[in-house]
């Protein structure tokens, strides 16, 4: 999903400016600079990329997404079968152990799945309500029965938030203590968490693929300022950094000590519209807004050509993307006329904006200028990143740019969140269409791929017609690593394959 900034203290921020080179030089320890700080290691209690991307290498899942981000492959479940009616899944659990040396069994998988379904603190329960029963018929066999057929079910098992955790450990320690020092099922163990500054991981010797892991450890270091983070990598104080600003790509490519890495992603930046606010509830007004925004100018000026214009909430390259979806032309005069025809004049909007985000601020200024040509006033409201998300959730905005990266291969999850109007008011837009909602539910249960594809094509066309939000652009993941780092890779769903990364001396 989205990544949200988290504020850090002044002392921690100052510390990031002079990262000790000894960390970067430590044999086998990879240091990675990032903007944000982790919020939790309890997988069911977060929907933030910055958490999932870190604990994807601390926990393992039953079913994984491969490196290409296009297919599923075995994880802790080495194989599985599905009944003819699509209701019963039987998984064979591989011979694996947790980081404390205890066996990982089907009972742990049952506990993890029922916890994400039933725990009142779970942010993901809706996606797992389809599970009727989950039982361990023996230590190596997990049997799941669904309430009804579900095409995306296997994909949901690959969600990092559905990672397998230790039942005994969670019941003994309690959720809060487990989140502070989790018992790992993945490649690395959480050694230390210095809030607002550094996450220290070390290799898990009991990981079932321990021979695959080349690093001794990984350190995720919070450096909120984009420019400082890039300087740290250039100076050798960090081995790698994520979220390279578009404006720095060409310059960093010229540094002989660095590799700029552009990996395919499922990121889509879009303009959220609060349909519950006055004239924004009128479809014609939202269509006028779409026509008043010059996406090409945004792609060229903000992404320096790294992005491509978006035409759908399902990103290009993802399952069931509709390549021929409508793209409204940029026409501010026609947009102005559409507003007049809708009986709307002097439209004034509050544009909620994260302060300090270079790309967001550039985008906001461009959109403000473009809307003005259609007679629309957009007042920029800059707020601290720690406030912005809560304000968005509470609906304290008219328009605001946000972004989404897919969490699973199947389009059902994102479609449900943004069109099915049962989750967070359709991702804080308050968009509602009973016809769309019904088709979302129907597509979830359709097992014929061709019929299902057509349903998602129709949903993309309906969303564009209604302007649930305004699609802006797709862009790759852009990261940077020093030349002695190999296989620092992020798949389209955002997972870093740190079990394959090598740091040469």
Structure notes:
The chain has 505 residues and is an alpha+beta fold. The protein is 32% helix and 24% strand. It contains 19 helices and 21 strands. It has helices at residues 10-17, 21-25, 49-55, 106-118, 125-128, 153-157, 167-173, 175-180, 226-234, 249-253, 283-291, 295-302, 332-341, 358-372, 385-393, 412-419, 424-428, 434-445, 449-466, and strands spanning 29-34, 63-65, 72-74, 77-82, 88-93, 96-97, 103-104, 131-138, 141-146, 188-194, 198-203, 217-222, 240-241, 258-273, 308-309, 348-354, 377-383, 399-404, 469-482, 485-486, 502-503. The strands form 6 sheets. Strands 1, 10, 11, 12, 13, 14, 15, 18 and 19 form a 9-stranded mixed beta sheet that branches. Helix 14 (358-372) links the parallel strand 16 and strand 17. Helix 16 (412-419) runs antiparallel to helix 18 (434-445). It starts with 9 loop residues before the first helix and ends with a strand.
What are the main properties of this structure?
nine-stranded mixed beta sheet; 21 strands; 505 residues; globular; 32% helix
Low-confidence stretches: 3-18, 20-25
What does the main sheet amount to?
A: 9 strands, mixed
Helical proportion, percent range: 25-40%
Our count of helices gives 19
Radius of gyration: 23 Å
Classify the beta-strand content into a percent band.
Answer: 15-25%
**What form results from the Cα inertia axes?**
globular
Layout of secondary structure:
Blueprint: H1 10-17, H2 21-25, E1 29-34, H3 49-55, E2 63-65, E3 72-74, E4 77-82, E5 88-93, E6 96-97, E7 103-104, H4 106-118, H5 125-128, E8 131-138, E9 141-146, H6 153-157, H7 167-173, H8 175-180, E10 188-194, E11 198-203, E12 217-222, H9 226-234, E13 240-241, H10 249-253, E14 258-273, H11 283-291, H12 295-302, E15 308-309, H13 332-341, E16 348-354, H14 358-372, E17 377-383, H15 385-393, E18 399-404, H16 412-419, H17 424-428, H18 434-445, H19 449-466, E19 469-482, E20 485-486, E21 502-503
Helix pairs in contact: 11-13, 12-14, 16-18, 18-19
């Amino acid at each position: 999903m989205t990544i949200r900034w988290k504020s850090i203290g002044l002392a921690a921020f100052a510390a990031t400016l002079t990262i000790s080179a000894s960390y970067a030089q430590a044999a086998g320890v990879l240091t990675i600079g990032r903007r944000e700080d982790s919020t939790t290691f309890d997988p069911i209690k977060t929907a933030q990329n910055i958490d999932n991307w870190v604990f994807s290498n601390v926990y393992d899942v039953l079913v994984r997404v491969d490196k290409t981000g296009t297919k599923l492959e075995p994880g802790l479940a080495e194989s599985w079968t599905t009944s003819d009616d699509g209701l019963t899944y039987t998984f064979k659990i591989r011979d694996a152990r947790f980081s404390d040396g205890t066996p990982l069994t089907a009972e742990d998988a049952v506990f993890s799945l029922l916890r994400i379904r039933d725990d009142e603190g779970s942010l993901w329960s809706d996606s797992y309500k389809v599970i009727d029963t989950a039982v361990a018929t023996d230590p190596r066999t997990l049997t799941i029965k669904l309430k009804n057929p579900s095409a995306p079910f296997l994909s949901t098992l690959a969600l990092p938030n559905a990672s397998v955790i230790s039942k005994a450990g969670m019941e003994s320690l309690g959720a809060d203590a487990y989140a502070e020092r989790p018992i790992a099922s993945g490649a690395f163990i959480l050694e230390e968490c210095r809030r607002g500054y550094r996450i220290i991981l070390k290799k898990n010797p009991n990981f079932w693929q321990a021979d695959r892991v080349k690093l001794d450890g990984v350190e995720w270091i919070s450096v909120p300022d984009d420019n400082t983070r890039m300087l740290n990598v250039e100076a050798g104080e960090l081995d790698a950094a994520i979220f390279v600003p578009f404006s720095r790509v060409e310059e960093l490519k010229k540094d002989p000590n660095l590799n700029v890495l552009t990996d395919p992603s499922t990121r889509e930046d879009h303009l959220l519209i609060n349909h519950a606010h006055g004239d924004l509830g009128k479809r014609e007004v939202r269509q006028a807004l779409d026509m008043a925004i010059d996406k090409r100018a945004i792609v060229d000026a903000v992404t320096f050509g790294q992005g491509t214009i978006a035409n759908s909430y399902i990103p290009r390259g993802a399952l069931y993307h509709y390549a021929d979806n409508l793209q409204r032309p940029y026409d501010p005069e026609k947009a102005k006329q559409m507003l007049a025809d809708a009986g709307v004049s002097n439209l004034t909007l509050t544009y909620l904006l994260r302060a300090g985000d270079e790309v967001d601020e550039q985008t906001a200024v461009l959109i403000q200028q473009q809307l003005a040509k259609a007679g629309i006033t957009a007042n920029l409201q800059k707020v601290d990143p720690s406030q912005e998300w809560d304000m968005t959730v509470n609906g304290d905005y008219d328009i605001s740019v946000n972004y989404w990266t897919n969490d699973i291969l199947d389009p059902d999850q994102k479609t449900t969140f943004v069109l099915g109007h049962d989750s967070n008011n359709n991702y804080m837009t308050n968009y509602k269409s009973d016809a769309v909602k019904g088709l979302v539910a129907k597509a979830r249960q359709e097992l014929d791929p061709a019929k299902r594809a057509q349903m998602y094509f129709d949903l993309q066309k309906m969303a564009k017609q209604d302007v649930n939000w305004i699609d802006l652009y797709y862009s790759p993941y852009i990261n940077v690593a020093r030349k002695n780092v190999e296989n620092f890779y992020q798949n389209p769903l955002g997972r870093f394959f740190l079990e394959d990364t090598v740091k040469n001396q």
